[in-house]
C-alpha cells in the first residue's frame, strides 16, 4: 500500500473508514525548509506521544481537533480533513524569524500574542502573508480568518498554561487547521503539536527544549523532547 501523503515528518495512510486516516510519525527531522536533515531514534514515538497527550487535553477543553485515538508508538488515527494551506503561528516571546525580520533581540515578551499567517508551501519557503493575500489566493475566507485567529488564541491560552505547569515557557508555535470532509465544512485543529513545531524554554534556566536544539546544533535533541514528555506526563 502506498501512503496517501508523505510530508517531512509524517505519512498519512488510508483506513477502512473513508473518514479516518492513520497518521504515522517518522524519525526524520528537517529544518530551514528541509535544507537540513537528520534522523533521530525515537523521535516518531516521542512526538506522537506528546501530541496525543496534548490533543486529548485540547479535546477535553472543548477545542475540536482531528484526533481520534493513538494506535501504537508512532501511529494515531485522525479524522480526514482538507488542510487549509495556511500555517498559523502564534508568538508570545520574540524568537526565530520574528527576530530575523525585525532585528529585535530574542526573548522579548509581547504585551499581547502576535499571530501571523504563512502559506504552507515548501517550494515558496512558507512566505508570510496578510489577510488580503489570503483572500486573493482564495486560501480562506474573511470569516475563516476570524475563526482561525480566535481558535489560535484559545489554543495559546490553553497551551501556555499547560506548559507553564510543566515548567516550560511557550515562546511560539505553529498550528494547522483542516475542514472535515463529512460535508459539514467544520474547521478543526489538525497536524501535530510537539517540540518540532513549538519553541519551549525551561522556565527556570531558559534552556531550549525544542527543535531549535537541532536547528542550532545544540545537541541533546531527543533528551529535551523526552524531558518535555516526562513533565507533561507528570501533570496527568
Ligand atoms: P519561525 O520563528 O521560524 O517563524 O517559527 C515560529 C514557530 O513555528 C516555531 O515554534 C517553529 C514553528 N514552525 C513550524 O512548525 N514549521 C515551519 O515550517 C515554520 C517556519 C515554523
Ligand atoms: N519545518 C520546517 C522544515 O522542516 C522549518 C523549520 O521547522 O525550521 O524545514
How would you sum up this structure, described in words?
- The chain has 236 residues and is an alpha+beta fold.
- The strands form 3 sheets. Strands 8, 9, 10, 11, 12, 13 and 14 form a 7-stranded antiparallel β-sheet that branches. Strands 1-2-3-7-6 form a 5-stranded antiparallel β-sheet, covered by helices on one side.
- It contains 6 helices and 14 strands.
- It has 2 domains: 78 residues, Phosphorylase Kinase, domain 1; 139 residues, D-amino Acid Aminotransferase, Chain A, domain 1 (2-Layer Sandwich), CATH 3.30.470.
- Helix 1 runs parallel beside helix 6.
- Strand 6 and strand 7 form a beta hairpin.
- The mean pLDDT is 97.
- The protein is globular, with a radius of gyration of 17 Å.
- The N and C termini lie far apart (37 Å).
- Bound molecules: thymidine-5'-phosphate and aspartic acid.
- The site of thymidine-5'-phosphate has 12 residues, from helix 2, strand 12 and strand 14.
Amino acid at each position: 500500500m502506498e501512503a496517501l501523503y508523505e510530508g517531512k515528518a509524517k505519512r498519512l495512510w488510508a483506513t477502512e473508514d473513508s473518514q479516518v486516516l492513520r497518521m504515522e510519525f517518522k524519525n526524520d527531522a528537517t529544518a530551514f525548509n528541509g535544507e537540513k536533515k537528520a534522523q533521530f531514534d525515537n523521535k516518531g514515538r516521542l512526538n506522537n506521544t506528546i501530541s496525543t497527550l496534548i490533543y486529548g487535553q485540547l479535546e477535553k477543553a472543548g477545542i475540536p481537533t482531528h484526533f481520534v485515538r493513538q494506535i501504537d508508538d508512532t501511529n494515531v488515527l485522525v479524522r480526514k480533513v482538507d488542510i487549509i494551506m495556511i500555517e498559523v503561528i502564534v508568538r508570545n516571546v520574540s524568537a526565530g524569524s520574528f527576530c530575523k525580520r525585525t532585528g529585535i533581540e530574542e526573548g522579548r515578551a509581547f504585551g499581547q500574542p502576535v499571530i501571523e499567517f504563512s502559506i504552507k508551501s515548501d517550494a515558496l519557503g512558507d512566505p508570510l502573508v496578510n489577510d488580503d493575500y489570503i483572500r486573493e489566493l482564495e486560501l480562506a475566507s474573511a470569516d475563516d480568518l476570524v475563526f482561525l485567529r480566535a481558535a489560535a488564541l484559545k489554543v495559546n491560552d490553553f497551551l501556555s498554561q499547560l506548559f507553564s505547569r510543566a515548567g516550560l515557557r511557550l515562546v511560539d508555535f505553529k498550528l494547522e487547521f483542516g475542514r472535515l470532509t463529512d460535508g459539514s465544512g467544520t474547521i478543526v485543529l489538525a497536524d501535530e503539536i510537539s517540540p518540532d513545531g513549538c519553541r519551549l524554554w525551561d522556565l527556570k534556566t531558559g534552556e531550549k527544549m525544542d527543535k531549535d536544539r537541532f536547528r542550532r546544533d545544540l545537541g541533546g535533541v531527543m533528551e529535551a523532547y523526552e524531558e518535555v514528555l516526562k513533565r507533561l506526563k507528570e501533570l496527568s
